[in-house]
Amino acid sequence: MALQFYSPCFLLRKFIRLVRIPCRLCCDPVPYPYNSRRRNVVLRFAALSALVGLLFLASETFKTPKYSASVNETKSTRHPGVLELLAIAAGMEMVRTPAESSSVKLPDESPVAPKISSDSRISGNLSKPMERPLDLDQIKLLIEMENRLQVVHNEEIFGPVMLSPEVHQETIVPLRYVIVVQIHRRINELGFLLESLANVAGINGSLIIFSHDFYDPAIIDLIRKSVSFARYMHIFFPFSIQTHPGQYPAQSPDDCPKSVSKTVAQRLKCLNAEHPDRFGHYRVAHMMQIKHHWVWKLARVFTGLDVTKDYSGHVLFLEEDYWLTDDALHVLDLMINAAPQICPKCSALTLGNYLKRQHPKGDTVEWIQFVGSRHNMGMAFNRTLFHRIIECIDVFCTFDDYNWDWTLQHVSLTCLKQPDPLLFLVAKSSRVYHIGECEGIHHQKKPANLKRPQCSLPGEVQKVKRASALFPHFPKKLKIVKGVLKIKPHKGNGGWGDPRDHRLCKHLSTGPGTDDKLSEML
Q1: Mind listing the pLDDT tens digit for each residue in 30-57?
Q2: Residues 289-304: pLDDT tens digits?
Q3: Where mainly located (predicted)?
């Protein structure tokens, strides 16, 4: 049952009307035949006393409740109350006594808001970092609550999510697109993505699902302040390295170092000594998380969310370091409508490409076999392809490559080759661009002398804006060209040799709920 809170003045009005006392403090006097000035004074004093009492009770009611569950008490049966969860969700600081406090230091992944560079165009939109970082208990509670409640924001502006086109009211914007954005911690890039999304034609008919593998209050606040142009919701990968410090799926002290030989690993008696990858290396947790998150995200969107589990249209998949043109959804509509005629065997669409020279007319699409490194940017597909991937999940989850896109290419050429490997319809003039070259996961591994000189995020954004201006936008129809239809098999980039990752990946593909215990998966 929903709780209603009333202002002290409203309650005082009710009290006055009940006892029929005239009061000049907050409302018009109610007639009453008083014959005694003394009685009038006494009753007014009583009303004033009642007001003071109500104010005191209101202040006590809205005091922040104490939250005493600590990491050391996770085995106890105590569960957080509704008020505690709501207080945490509202950003209220939990009051702890010294005995109750047990803040946990998270290895290499602090929940404190990331620092924003002074040259960032979005730095002014970010809230100040919280004075006291959230501890591990609070982060887990927030993630669990968000995943359970499945709150859709901005419904008061655009109306509730309506999947049926027949159900239409003037105050409701029908749902036309579902957009999923995979987010880690790249808040600067995310700001530019949100800026570009705000300028996309038709974006108000979208539901944007932000899929996180790290809980960062600054990122949540950025989205809250920036996204007023569409409905949106948050989902959180519940088996992240942030929420499991010092244990699998994060890096455990018992795990083997990445680059030791198998002989040395056996001598060290580390946990996964018998399971290096095809190059003799051992797992690196933050690299494994990306593929796990991708699998979980698909299962969550297509089977686990109330608002999308019956959605039959295409889902557009983006990442935090992308940038979209203003006609991206317009071109997506054209591709969806044209695909049955120009490429009936195509399983998916891709709005982006990595071509150095974009097609000058802006109206050309290519029918081509899927290549992981070329057609992974701005993919869109429906639940038909999702079910085909799930049918091949054993191949997907055991192939020795930590990249989901290269893995999907392998699945296409092996498990999905009948009746055909994955065929994609790809825009020759990109509507999605990658702006994360400066700080990307692969770029970070390069030696300093091999990195691009003078690489900056604002510079990357200006570069893609210039590139997108070289061709006309909003074409009326599409032209089709035929691309390469024979791709050589890929042996895999390694990094995915640990059987724990294989088992977790398979389990995540079933869309496990938030109550699943990690020990039950491994």
Answers
A1: 444 444 455 565 566 676 777 667 666 6
A2: 999 999 999 999 999 9
A3: Golgi
375 is in an annotated binding site: no
405 annotated to a ligand binding site: no
Distance CA 322, CA 376 (A): 12
| Distance (Å, whole) CA 375 – CA 338 | 19
Kindly report the number of other CB atoms within 10 A of residue 448's CB atom: 5
- The answer to whether 434 is a known ligand-binding residue is yes
What amino acid is encoded at 213 in this protein?
Answer: D
DSSP string, 233-248: EEEE-TT-SSSSTTST
Residue 335's closest CA among 202, 259, 418, 427? 427
Radius of gyration of the chain (CA): 28
Please give the domain boundaries of the chain with CATH numbers for all domains: 12-56 (no CATH), 173-437+454-520 (3.90.550.10)
Report the alpha-carbon distance of residue 2 to residue 221 in Å, rounded.
25
- The answer to whether the annotation marks 224 as part of a ligand binding site is no
Tokens of 521: 């998966």
Sign of CA dihedral 118, 120, 125, 126: negative
What secondary structure letter does DSSP report for 95? Answer: B
Q: How far is CA 30 from the centre of its chain?
A: 55
Higher pLDDT, 14 or 109: 14
- The DSSP element (H or E) to which 365 belongs, if any, is strand 364-369
Asked whether residue 333 is marked as a ligand-binding residue, the answer is: no
H helices then E strands: how many in the chain? 15, 11
62 Cβ contact partners less than 8 Å away, ≥ 6 residues apart: none
DSSP letters of 456-471? -HHHHHHHHHHHHTTS
Q: Are residues 319 and 410 in contact, defined by beta-carbon separation less than 8 angstroms? A: no
List of residues 6+ apart from 59 with CB closer than 8 A: none
* CA nearest neighbour of 181 among 324, 76, 75, 356: 324
281 is in an annotated binding site: no
Q: Residues near 39 by Cβ (< 8 Å), separated by ≥ 6?
A: none
Which one, of 89, 214, 95, lies nearest residue 145 by Cα?
Answer: 89
Q: What predicted TM-score, i.e. pTM, was given to this entire model? A: 0.76
Contacts of 295 (CB under 8 A, 6+ apart): 396, 397, 404, 505, 508, 509
Mean pLDDT along residues 490-497 = 95
CB atoms within 10 A of CB 352: 24
- Amino acid symbol at 289: Q
Residue 424 and residue 348 in contact, taking contact as beta carbons nearer than 8 Å: yes
pLDDT tens profile 251-285: 999 999 999 999 999 999 999 999 999 999 999 99
Q: Is 314 annotated as a binding residue?
A: no
Please choose, from the candidates 435, 434, 430, the residue with its C-alpha nearest in 3D space to the C-alpha of residue 458: 435
CB 142 within 8 A of CB 88: yes
CA distance 165 to 174: 7
Task: State yes or no: 418 annotated in a binding site.
Answer: no
Mean confidence (pLDDT) of the chain: 81
Please indicate if the annotation marks 289 as binding a ligand. Answer: yes
Task: Check the annotation: does 293 bind a ligand.
Answer: yes
